[in-house]
Amino acid sequence: MQITLIRHLPTEWNKQQKLQGRRDIELAPLTEASWQGVLQNRLLLDKLAPFDEVLASTMKRTQQTAQIYGYPFTVEPLLDELDFGPFEGLSKEKLYEYCGKKWMDHPEELILGESVANLKRRIVLFLEKYRDRQNILAFGHGTWIRAAISYCYCGDINHMNKITVQNNECVILNFHV
């Protein structure tokens, strides 16, 4: 199964380095650079099409991104961002101070608003749910995508915070399910 993941376009909170998690934040006005990124990604997506499924999380920032790309989509709650609980709206530095080295080395042991282990379960459930699809396009979130990359290449999600995925970055993963 090939999954093409696109992290949503930037929000004002992304620009301020604030954790969004389950907060339903809208996209910031798009810059020329964002539009150019969409056009470049569209060229790649046109080569990868057709897609068996096009999905977006329940958050409006992913749905708005899918609409800007011109794709009709199905809402998939399994794609929702990690719930950062009391850290939503705060700087990433506050989270790092609280979690210490666990955030980088053993995030699966952490419980924020949601356990990071539950994020892994959602990724596994996603892969099981769509295992009969060959080619999926999903508009998602940074932590979810980083965790999926770690799971794909390492078999666990404990490497997710050593991976960087920018807003509007396109990532292609191949899972053998």
Summed up:
With 177 residues, the chain is an alpha/beta fold. It is built from seven helices and five strands.
Notable traits:
177 residues, alpha/beta, 7 helices, globular
Number of strands: 5
Poorly predicted runs: none
Widest sheet: strand ordering: 3-2-4-1-5
The percentage helix is: 40-55%
General shape: globular
N to C succession of SSEs: EHHEHEHHHEHE
Total DSSP helices: 7
Give the distance, in angstroms, between the N- and C-terminal Cα atoms. 7 Å
Radius of gyration: 15 Å
Name the beta content range: 5-15%
What's the overall average pLDDT, rounded?
97
Q: Major β-sheet, in short?
A: 5 strands, mixed
Describe the fold and architecture.
With 177 residues, this protein is of the alpha/beta class. Helix content is 40%, strand content 13%. It has helices at 12-15, 32-48, 60-69, 92-99, 101-105, 116-129, 142-154; strands at residues 2-7, 53-56, 74-75, 135-140, 170-174. It has a 5-stranded mixed beta sheet, sandwiched between helices. Helix 3 (60-69) links the parallel strand 2 and strand 3 (74-75). The radius of gyration is 15 Å and the shape is globular.
